[in-house]
Give the backbone structure.
Amino acid sequence: MNVYDGERMAGLLASIGYRPVETPAEADLVILNTCHIREKAAEKLYSDLGRLKETKAARGGAMTIAVAGCVAQAEGAEIVSRAPVVDIVVGPQAWHRLPELIAKAARGKGEALDTDFAVEEKFDVLSRPREAPGVSAYVTVQEGCDKFCTFCVVPYTRGAEYSRSVADLVAEAERLVMRGVREITLLGQNV
């Protein structure tokens, strides 16, 4: 799921003029896209943020640092408090609002924190990836979960279960096939 989310964020950022670079030292914007299910995810995040703090300082503060994904969703306020180097915190149901959050961070107008579960349908507002993804691609069938198992954070980090319509899925798959994709992996917590 994070690969898919990352690809969609990259497409969204490309539409507002961002492009990938090789190292964080070259970046105007660094996004750490996190997974809360991974072991020691928060500790790894803070370790990465420590390194980015040094890079940002070496550049005179000319870098925007964002934390996205499920750790951002679960620990948003703590990230802001514990790592003031972070400019943007955005959960997995709100990253389609990254352009607004980037603009807010650039203006220095308070916290750019968005861990709300979106009212609008994010699949409707996301741009389609521009470049051919190669032979394989991901398609999100469903996100979230309503099961609330005692061991699982998904309902708290990805929100309520939501399934995309069959028509939307078929249309996305057809677009991918027309671009040369031969293998489509369906994504979802309850697929």
Q: What stands out?
A: Residues 41-58 form the longest helix (18 residues). The domain at 2-114 is CATH 3.40.50 (Rossmann fold). Residues 55 and 153 are 32 Å apart (CA to CA).
